[in-house]
Automatic annotation (TrEMBL):
Region (Disordered): 138-162
Keywords: DNA-binding
A Pfam family: HTH_31
GO CC annotations, alphabetized: cytosol
Entry-linked InterPro entries: Cro/C1-type_HTH, Lambda_DNA-bd_dom_sf, TransReg_Diox_bact_type
Protein name: Helix-turn-helix domain-containing protein
């Protein structure tokens, strides 16, 4: 809603000069006093009183107390924004707009706030400013903003060891409702869960390309794409059910979107790999010093990535093992990461890891060099922060191949199968000489004789659809629902 439609005085702005000035003017007029009267009473010229009432001068506490006594009001009454007239609210909003960076960038003369300036004129100016502000925010909503939000979110996850007790409880309650007694969650049990929550399932061939599923609360339906080869049919459904259970509103910004995505994925993972049976399974494996992502994957019939990610949510809280997790594409670019074992990921100037290139000597990239892609890949790597053991596996998707890696510090490698590997490499990244700068002799030989053509990632230049934070094309979604809703 625009300022022209509704103007709020924020609690944090109660002490600003504009609000106090308008409050003083309102109290003065209600007492039948002129500007001259108030000036004489506080020992100020009338012009100085006008400056105060127009919010152009900051007052000390003693001055405010003296004005309050003259006006027969309490000190708190001057600071209270409630009760201001509609006109006062509009004038305050207009003054704030004109003091802001957007108005200043336009290099326009300020609009004098006079009685002759109508409320409608002020509302028009405020609406125009709101639209300019919206356009600026939209243009600023770049992947940079998403990376900043993701960095903050990853810090929050690290503080809680990536363990969300409230989501574990929610998953346990849902599984108990369908009488699931542990172990893998079957496709049938997943459908029972949807039925328990009041939904029927509909598999379609024309699901909008910007969606993984669509939940129609009006008709109690969940629409899913007809199963694609190589995908887990439970995943999209459980994420849709998780979003419903968590009652997530439309995200306001990237931070909201990422937080909701993390919580939804966590709850879906906790349903596919239930905490109680998973912890029992992992503790037994730790006692035998046979911890393995592959075993967790096979025991609960999930993908390798789901097993590795779920391991990070349970390892520290229940096994006392700090870990790190990476998802890296075949060109070495990191797309997803988590750590609480002090491993140092590559970062940009803002502390973000997404989009950064992983050292070529790390397990996450070395696994692409191995011909045997069926056997687990294990490696020790001496890094600036210490020696780490890591296990990696190559997975395939519609966007190409990527590696999923799970690692821990040398001291905790003793609990894992594969700890006896002889592979050991050294990484000195972020030192450019480690793997980012070519050999000097090669540079001298090739440097002036090669001109490679870069592949520009289209998403680098792509913007979100207008009015969208999550990238979903709502026009497409609503048209889809109208085609499929029961008549």
């Amino acid at each position: 809603m625009t300022r022209g439609a509704h103007v709020d005085v924020d609690d944090e702005e109660m002490l600003d000069t504009l609000t106090i000035g308008r409050r003083i003017r309102q109290l003065r007029r209600s007492r039948g006093m002129t500007v001259d009267d108030l000036g004489a009473a506080i020992g100020r010229a009338a012009s100085q009183v006008s400056v105060i009432e127009n919010g152009k001068r900051e007052l000390k506490v003693a001055e405010l107390q003296r004005i309050a006594r003259v006006l027969g009001a309490s000190f708190d009454a001057l600071l209270e924004p409630a009760g201001l007239s509609r006109r006062d609210e509009l004038e305050i909003a207009l003054e704030r707009v004109q003091r802001g960076p957007i108005f200043a960038s336009l290099q326009l003369p300020p609009v004098a706030v006079r009685k002759s300036l109508s409320d409608e004129a002020i509302e028009t100016i405020l609406r125009l400013h709101d639209e300019l502000e919206r356009l600026h925010r939209q243009r600023a909503s770049t992947p940079e903003e998403a990376r900043i939000a993701n960095t903050e979110l990853r810090g929050q996850q690290r503080k809680r060891n990536n363990s969300y007790e409230e989501l574990e409880r929610a998953a346990a309650e849902l599984l108990a409702a369908i009488n699931h007694r542990g172990g893998p969650l079957s496709q049938r049990a997943t459908s029972q869960l949807a039925d328990h929550l009041g939904f029927t399932l509909h598999y379609v061939n024309d699901l909008p390309i910007t969606t993984r599923s669509i939940t129609d609360h009006r008709n109690g339906r969940i629409y899913l794409a007809v199963r694609q080869p190589g995908t887990d049919p439970r995943s999209a459904l459980l994420q849709a059910l998780a979003a419903h259970v968590l009652r997530q509103p439309a995200p306001k910004d990237y931070g909201d979107l990422l937080r909701q995505r993390v919580e939804t994925n966590y709850l879906a993972g906790a349903l596919m790999i239930p905490e109680a049976s998973a912890v029992e399974f992992l503790k037994a494996a730790k006692d035998a010093r046979e911890l393995s992502v592959e075993d967790l994957r096979d025991h609960f019939a999930v993908t390798y990535e789901t097993a590795a990610h779920r391991f990070t949510t349970l390892a520290t809280a229940h096994l006392g093992i700090p870990v790190h997790f990476l998802k890296v594409n075949s060109s070495g670019v990191l797309s997803k990461a988590y750590e609480n074992d002090a491993v140092q990921f590559p970062v940009d100037a803002l502390g973000s890891v997404e989009g950064q290139t992983v050292c070529r000597w790390w397990s996450a990239r070395q696994v692409f060099e191995v011909e045997d892609r069926l056997s687990p890949y294990h490696q020790y790597t001496d890094k600036p922060a210490g020696t780490y053991w890591c296990t990696s596996s190559i997975q395939s998707s519609a966007n190409g191949e990527f590696s999923v890696s799970l690692g821990t510090s040398f001291a905790h490698a003793k609990w894992f199968r594969g700890r006896d590997t002889k592979r050991r490499l050294t990484s000195t990244c972020p030192d450019p000489a480690c793997c980012r700068e070519p050999d000097p002799d090669r540079s001298a030989y090739w440097g002036d004789h090669v001109m490679p053509s870069a592949r520009l990632t289209t998403s680098l230049l792509a913007a979100m659809p207008d009015g969208s934070t999550d990238g979903v094309d709502k026009v497409d979604v609503y048209e889809f629902l109208e085609r499929h809703a029961p008549r």
